Amino acid sequence: AAFAGVLLGLAFVVKGVAALFLPLVPLLVAVDWREWDAKGVRQLVDGAGMMAAGAWFAIQAGYGFSGFPLPAALIESVRFQMAQSALAELPSFFNGKWSATGWWYYHVVALGLKTPIPTLLLLAAGVAAVVRDGRRATRNLWIVLPPTFLLYVLSFHYGKDYGVRYMLPAFPFMILLAGRGTDALLRFGTKGVALVGALLAWQAAACALTSPHHLAYFNELAGGPDHARRLLIDSNLDWGQDLGRLKEYLDAQGIRRICLGYFGHVDPYLYGIDFAFPSTGKMVPGRCAVSANFLAGAAYTVTYAGDNLPGVHPGVWAWFDKFQPVDRVGDSIYIFDISAEDIARVTGTAPAP
Question: Which of 308 and 303 is assigned the larger pLDDT?
Answer without folding.
Answer: 303
